[in-house]
Amino acid sequence: METEGYLERIRIVLVDTQDGANIGSVCRAMKTMGITDLAIVGDREYDEDRVRTLALHASDVWEKAKRFHTLQEALEDSIFTVGATRRRGKFRKLSAYSPEQLSEKISQLPEGRISIVFGRESDGLRDDEVAACSSIVTIPTSDSFPSLNLSQAVQIICYILFRGALVYKQGMTAVPHEKVRESADEMTEHLKAMGYFKMADEEKWTNQLLSDIIERAALSTEELRRFEKIFRKAELIAMHKRGE
Known about the structure:
By secondary structure, the protein is an alpha/beta fold. The chain contains eleven helices and six strands. Helix 2 packs parallel to helix 3 (48-55), helix 6 packs across helix 8 (150-163) and helix 9 (177-193) packs parallel to helix 11. The longest helix is centred in the last third of the chain and has 21 residues, at 221-241. The mean pLDDT is 92.
């Protein structure tokens, strides 16, 4: 089975990892499954020896890792962003992919980088970091002890992606994460101008919903342009009816 092109676009993003040994273990987990693009978010300094000792023959993943100050910077050029978390809540998405569902979803996406985000060893991803992603993936675990080690979680996700790797159709290119956010902001402004928002926080969560849906749909530039036009035209119609 052809896997190279499919796996090359997978980026594993670690947010504020606390121990360099865990980064080394993640490097090894990734490379055994053919994934080598690692991004590290945060300004921590790590002990090289601890990283390399656990990475073993996957030290090249560490050496090529990209550093970002913020998660938003790490996700800017991705067409699909997924936060790995088991916690649910009012502000942590309405649904989650299983690892197998995520693999199937990725196999259907057009060309472009896919970022899968993992949080801190102690408490995972914060609400705002989950919100920065369009989707979440949850690894099923026992209710009696649901917590997974960081590298174990990365290993499971990478294994499922490796096992389900497919040759995907090339041609259409989806708009990147940064453009998705800009478009969602523009659409939200059109809704605001129409007087759509009536309740507290409705604007914020509508913006988030639009952003998530657009990214999951993997729209092309032209498709997104036409989608934006719907909101612009709706605002103009509302203004006309108000006699503006």
